[in-house]
Design a protein that fits this description.
The complex is a heterodimer of chains A (about 350) and B (about 600). Chain A has about 350 residues and is α/β, with parallel strands linked by helices. Chain A has a single domain, classed as Rossmann fold, CATH 3.40.50. Chain A contains twelve helices and 13 strands. In chain A, strands 2-1-3-4-8-7-13-9 form an eight-stranded mixed beta sheet, sandwiched between helices. Chain A has a three-stranded antiparallel beta sheet with strand order 10-12-11. In chain A, β7, α7 and β8 form a beta-alpha-beta unit. In chain A, α1 packs across α7, α3 runs parallel beside α5 and α6 packs antiparallel against α9. Chain A starts with about 35 loop residues before the first helix and ends with a helix. By secondary structure, chain B is an alpha/beta fold. Chain B has four domains: about 190 residues, Pyruvate-ferredoxin Oxidoreductase, domain 3 (3-Layer(aba) Sandwich), CATH 3.40.920.10; about 180 residues, Thiamin diphosphate (ThDP)-binding fold, Pyr/PP domains (Rossmann fold); about 60 residues, no CATH class; about 110 residues, Rossmann fold. In chain B, the strands form five sheets. In chain B, strands 10, 11, 12, 13, 14, 15, 16 and 22 form an eight-stranded mixed beta sheet that branches. A six-stranded mixed beta sheet of chain B has the order 3-4-2-5-6-7. In chain B, strands 19-21-20-23-24 form a five-stranded mixed beta sheet, sandwiched between helices. The chains are: A alpha/beta (about 350), B alpha/beta (about 600). Chains A and B meet through β2, α3, α5, α11 and α12 of A and β9, α7, β11, α9 and α10 of B.
Chain lengths: ~350, ~600
């Protein structure tokens, strides 16, 4: 890890459509351990936001507590951020989203934050199909308190002190599919080529978009015997498909192209181009996605890539029919019924 | 017989019913009829934590003098619940009346020599007149209301108009109700002397007052105050706050053009999520609130600490009930005072408001939003089950046509352009209140990181002791500022004229005022102050310092408000005497008077 990041940027750094260079999307210097998987994910978020031409101030980043939840400070410094309390980011994101439906909500959590203390909120934010990106930086351990096993640690996995985890692990991705999440992906912090298009697709998804990213903890869980180490993950990773996020490809007519490729049309006319590696799997079919995840687990593989999506789901605002105008822009004029109405209310109470 | 003279508009009727038998609407009809006759009336619903089958009581005090507190002693018991009969007979005042269903003979064990019995064969009459099983059950209640009309001299035409309003659109139901009422009237006319030696007489003491429960008033207050996001988890006795909010939102928050809703109401998975949503929405510039009760407040503590430290406006309506733990969930108390005042770990202090009436529930809910946004901190409205779930006679709601929401120090894009460097926690004005920005305001200025960890004036994480202390001290400065913002207390006298004074708040107001009258009749003059807010402002401090004996009246065991006064104002414990009630029932004037006179070593009448 470098302690001083040079402020100098090459004057001819490429700019995106908004005229911003990628440095405009960076955050403060990371204070995580050198080589932490989380920093690679932060870099992926920076790149995705840059390439997607996101106005940084039109995105709000939220997190809970833990190593992963510190990362929003390390990307998109021109965005408002909210580092809330342990396991409760989903509720804060829900309230924020209800207040202003026009922003992108980018939630970052960890395996302790989501699979243990925050399991209740994780489950319920999925039920509500809140329009947000929810990334779990999953390292199978509690880094900030020095390496205790988390609920996503695999049974039989050995931690740094040599203790073997006795308990069944919680698989967040298959849980999310089971609960009806409308976008579920899994990735690996060491695979930026796969991660960046997944983040882009997630930001574009008009509902709850979950990405479980295996992100090795170099300090406490990168040892031999751990199933969340760089080496283990690299050896066991199996991708559903390679993925490209294709902005506005109006010339494509057929949803399916020849061979192994599949184009998934998204709500706003953009496409996800999947080069499928498995013929049995259909990302638009929940049952098929669940089978693919379970089959991979049987084979001790970590299935990555897009697992499932429903491109046409209605988010929470659609379900409860809130107005198209963000609620935080409404004033006395729209909100207060006024004294005349109150006279009638009083009259009815006499 | 101790009741010799006729008493007009001054008695207590209690109904003993079985939960879930439709008695509530019949009893309400009785109460509303007296209200319509222009007579001050106070109903108290005493209900179990149960949906069907357990005893429930409805107690109505009628008071010409306008005493709206509960009064001990039942003048007339309408006992239609065999389960509670023993206790019901025992609770009648000597010389009082006991109305019962005489379809079956009353057992000898229920007979008291000093009580008058009025047996009406309610079940028999119902079975004869109605065929439908549900109607037979429901109209039993209406028949006894009819009997009361005759016994207490209630104007029958008032019932007719009330039923007409109640069944507007379902006129079919009016006739059988009138028939049942008339059956009760006729039975009394044929079998008893009427009216009793206490009865009602039409008055004009209500004026333009309204009758409503405090929770509905809070819900309406949140609508008027512009709340757009409500998040909650069901818990008695606060549930009806959000239900009222929903009801009013259905009426007043539908966009006339699109048909969509200018409100988001989320039933959360628990209280932790509810308060998290409220904090998220307020952070993002919407007015948002939750309503809960003691157990929910306990769960919300961690988030309240975050909102205090990260300085996020938060509005919480705490409808207090009897604790600790699940306690008596359907009984009233004022026992969350200390928990609310210092909610969460670390050094925290929270703004509390104490409404006494539905009108204050309405106004203070609105005040809570203004204060929360001006002070950028949680504000808790401390109501209770008695105020929240019982109907109260109240001054009508008022809203000034020119009233604007006070949104506090929020910077717009234009304002940000004029600033060299934005510091979220920079005390620019010297009052401890700093400037905030909503997400999405400006492309390159005003973004900051909200966190519950220590940070400097520019919201940058720091573990510097100096920066942490500076921030904590500024929060104290803001607390001092808050004293000028919160509602001033109600003083009962322009100039103090006694060394003895009473301090009370919330629903203890009614009985405390009555107690002052009783004490005055015993030649004990007292000054009085009603607290409306915490932190205590200068008026409270001055008032306390001007008196030698201060009676703090409250509805909890541990004298929580007294402790708060001692801690916050440094008042000597020897000056502060507690008047307490914590049996779950609303405090009475007699309880207050007894405790004060016994302390003053005066004979108790």
């Amino acid at each position: 890890m470098t302690y001083i990041r040079p402020k100098f940027r090459h004057p001819e750094l490429p700019k995106n459509k908004l005229g911003y260079t990628i440095s405009y999307y960076e955050g403060a210097l990371s204070t995580l351990c050198a080589g932490c998987g989380h920093d690679s994910i932060s870099a992926g978020i920076v790149q995705a936001a840059y390439e997607m031409n996101i106005e940084p101030h039109k995105l709000a980043k939220l997190s809970g507590i833990g190593c992963s939840s510190k990362t929003p400070a390390y990307f998109l410094s021109n965005s408002h951020g909210f580092n809330s309390v342990h396991g409760r980011m989903p509720s804060v994101a829900t309230g924020a989203n209800m207040a202003n439906r026009d922003l992108i909500y980018f939630g970052v959590s960890g395996d302790g934050d989501s699979a243990s203390i925050g399991m209740g909120q994780f489950v319920h934010v999925i039920r509500r199909n809140l329009n947000m990106v929810y990334i779990v930086m999953n390292n199978g351990c509690y880094g900030l308190t020095k390496g205790q096993d988390s609920a996503t640690a695999d049974r039989g996995s050995k931690n740094k002190s040599g203790n073997v985890n006795l308990f069944q692990s919680i698989d967040l991705a298959s849980l999310a599919i089971e609960l009806g999440a409308t976008f579920v992906a899994q990735s690996f912090s060491g695979d930026k080529t796969q991660l960046v298009p997944l983040i882009k697709a997630a930001m574009n998804h008009p509902g709850f978009a979950f990405i479980n990213v295996i992100s090795p903890c170099v300090t406490f869980n990168n040892n031999v015997g751990s199933t969340k180490s760089y080496d283990f993950v690299r050896e066991h990773v199996e991708a559903t498909a390679t993925i490209d996020f294709v902005p506005m490809m109006s010339e494509i007519k057929a949803e399916y192209t020849e061979g192994d490729s599949k184009m998934v049309k998204l709500h706003d006319g953009t496409y996800l181009k999947l080069h499928k590696l498995s013929q049995e799997w259909d990302p638009l079919n929940r049952l098929s996605a669940m089978n693919a995840v379970h089959n991979a687990r049987e084979k001790d593989e970590i299935l990555t890539g897009l697992l499932y999506m429903d491109p046409d789901s209605g988010d929470l605002h659609e379900m409860i029919q809130t107005s198209d105008r963000p609620l935080n822009t409404l004033t006395e004029k729209e909100l207060c019924p006024g004294p005349e109405v109150l006279k009638n209310i009083n009259a009815d109470l006499r | 017989m101790s009741l010799k003279e006729n008493r007009i508009n001054d008695f207590v009727v209690r109904f003993a019913n079985v939960n879930g038998t439709g008695s509530a609407s019949a009893n309400y009809l009785f109460c509303k009829a007296i209200f319509r006759m222009g007579i001050p009336v106070t109903p108290k619903n005493i209900f179990p934590s149960n949906i069907q089958g357990l005893p429930t009581w409805y107690e109505v005090r009628i008071s010409e003098k306008g005493y709206l507190g509960r009064r001990e002693g039942i003048d007339l018991m309408v006992a239609v619940n065999p389960q509670s009969m023993t206790a019901d007979v025992a609770s009648v005042k000597s010389g009082g009346y006991f109305l019962y269903d005489s379809s079956k003979k009353l057992q000898a064990e229920y007979m008291r020599e000093d009580v008058n019995y009025i047996g009406i064969p309610l079940m028999e009459m119902c079975n004869e007149a109605f065929t439908d099983a549900r109607q037979r059950q429901l109209f039993k209640n209406i028949i006894y209301v009819g009997a009361l009309a005759a016994l207490l001299n209630i104007d029958f035409s008032v019932f007719e108009s009330l039923l007409g309003e109640q069944f507007k659109g379902k006129e079919k139901l009016i006739a059988p109700n009138i028939k049942a009422l008339q059956m009760g009237v006729d039975y009394v006319h044929q079998n008893f002397k009427y009216p009793l030696n206490f009865y009602v007489e039409k008055r004009d003491l209500i004026g333009d007052k309204i009758m409503i429960d405090g929770n509905s008033a809070c819900g309406l207050g949140a609508i008027y105050a512009g709340a757009t996001v409500a998040a909650w988890y069901p818990i008695t006795p606060s549930t009806s706050v959000v239900e009222a909010f929903m009801g009013y939102a259905d009426e007043y928050r539908i966009d006339p053009v699109t048909g969509k809703r200018n409100v988001a109401i989320i039933q959360a998975e628990d209280e932790l999520a509810a308060i998290g949503m409220v904090i998220g929405a307020n952070w993002n510039g919407a007015r948002s609130f939750t309503a809960t009760s003691g157990p929910g407040l306990s769960l919300m503590n961690e988030f309240l600490g975050l909102a205090y430290f990260a300085e996020i406006p938060t509005v919480l309506i705490d409808v207090q009930r009897s604790g600790p733990s699940t306690g008596m969930p359907t009984r009233t108390q004022q026992s969350d005072v200390l928990e609310a005042a210092y909610a969460s770990h670390g050094d925290t202090k929270h703004v509390l408001l104490f409404p006494s009436t539905p009108k204050e529930c309405f106004e203070m809910t609105s005040d809570a939003f203004d204060l929360a946004e001006e002070l950028q901190t949680p504000v808790m409205l401390m109501t209770d089950l008695d105020l929240g779930m019982n109907d109260h006679v109240s001054a009508p709601f008022e809203w000034n046509v020119n009233k604007e929401y006070k949104r506090g120090k929020v910077l717009s894009a234009t304002a940000l352009d004029k600033i060299e460097k934005f510091g979220r926690y920079l005390d620019v004005d010297g009052d401890g209140i700093t400037y905030r920005t909503y997400p999405g305001t400006h492309p390159s200025k005003g973004s900051f990181f909200t966190r519950g960890t220590s940070r400097d004036e520019y919201a940058v994480y720091t573990e510097s002791s100096d920066a942490y202390k500076r921030n904590m001290d500024r929060l104290m400065k803001k607390w001092e500022t808050a004293k000028d913002y919160v509602n001033a207390p109600q003083l009962y006298q322009e100039k103090n004229h006694s060394k003895i004074c009473l301090i009370f708040f919330g629903t203890s107001q009614f009985s405390s005022e009555e107690a002052m009258d009783i004490l005055r009749s015993q030649n004990i003059q007292t000054d009085a102050l009603r607290l409306k807010a915490f932190p205590f402002n200068r008026d409270v401090e001055d008032f306390i310092n001007a008196h030698e004996q201060i009676f703090v009246i409250e509805q909890n065991r541990d004298a929580q408000m007294r402790s708060l006064i001692m801690i916050e104002l440094g008042i000597n414990a020897d000056k502060l005497f507690s008047v307490l009630n914590y049996d779950g029932m609303p405090i009475t004037a007699d309880q207050i008077t007894r405790q004060i006179t016994s302390h003053l070593n005066l004979p108790n009448n």
